[in-house]
Design brief:
The chain is mostly helical and 294 residues long. It has ten helices and no strands.
């Protein structure tokens, strides 16, 4: 029988047992248990399973907040703060000596890094949702103004809306980078791997939609109000500078999500086209029917 190396001391065996127990609890928690909410600022091995679950559930909750943010408003600040706390706790797993003594411990260390990135991405997404929710009235004013040919209203709303959209874009772009760095194999359940793929897809769609919304708001800010209203009511065009035309040409209604209809209208007014055919757009979700042509 191969002798254990001298460094395999009683304390090392105890550490290995602790890691094995933590891994077993982690697998059980990921499969059967709801996530408790550990609040300890000092990380312990036995905290890891609950923190893994909380990070994944927190990411799922952040995605829901993002979807709701433009429709009914959300209060995401406390959730964003908790997700930052979870991310920082999991980053501290490298300080746990018990995880250094076995292959199983190394796996938990890797998992801790991946779940830390999930939690930080959840925090960034929640912050983006809060920024959008805070500008919900400006969003409504802009979208309704565009549809009703009321470009005075749309212009008044555009600066604050663009600032909120750009703030949200910053958070979502950061979240995408974090999610891209997560190794699926380093997550401990199939449901968490599926969540990672879904989060990347949803956040990428929101980045495109908000990029188009911010550019549409900038078009309305820069364009002559009277020219916009003439184009809206008569479906004519003219009176737009080259910078406005260039911005309008960059708009992609088909990638604008729930703002697709209004983005298409802004583009068509500046470029002198009828409501764009073939874009597959309809009225913005949650904002009512489009205004008539008169």
């Amino acid at each position: 029988m191969r002798k254990l190396p001298l460094r395999w001391t009683l304390s090392s065996r105890r550490a290995a047992y602790a890691v094995a127990a933590a891994a077993l609890v982690a697998l059980l928690a990921l499969t059967y248990l709801p996530a408790p909410a550990p609040r300890a600022l000092r990380l312990r091995v036995e905290d890891l399973p609950a923190l893994f679950v909380e990070a994944a559930q927190g990411l799922n909750h952040s995605l829901k907040l993002l979807e709701l943010s433009t429709r009914q408003g959300v209060n995401a600040s406390s959730h964003a703060g908790r997700m930052r706390e979870v991310a920082l706790l999991l980053r501290n797993a490298t300080e746990l000596g018990e995880l250094q003594v076995s292959e199983l411990g190394q796996r938990l260390l890797e998992a801790s890094g991946n779940y830390s990135d999930l939690a930080m991405a959840a925090s960034r997404i929640a912050e983006a949702a809060q920024a959008l929710s805070s500008a919900r009235e400006q969003l409504r004013g802009f979208l309704e103004g565009v549809r009703a040919c009321d470009f005075g209203r749309a212009k008044r709303a555009a600066p604050a809306l663009r600032a909120a959209a750009e703030e949200a874009l910053g958070g979502l772009s950061s979240a995408l980078q974090l999610l891209a760095g997560v190794r699926e194999e380093g997550l401990l359940s199939d449901s968490h791997r599926e969540l990672l793929r879904r989060a990347e897809s949803q956040v990428a769609k929101w980045v495109k939609a908000l990029s188009n919304l911010a550019r549409a708001a900038e078009v309305v800010e820069r364009a002559d109000q009277a020219a916009l209203e003439r184009a809206c009511r008569a479906r004519g065009s003219g009176g737009f500078g080259g910078d406005v035309v260039g911005l309008a040409q960059s708009l992609e209604p088909s990638e604008s999500g729930e703002f697709a209809y209004e983005v298409a209208l802004v583009k068509s007014y500046v470029l002198g086209k009828q409501r764009e055919s073939g874009t597959g757009v309809g009225p913005g979700a949650g904002w009512g029917e489009p205004a008539g042509d008169d």
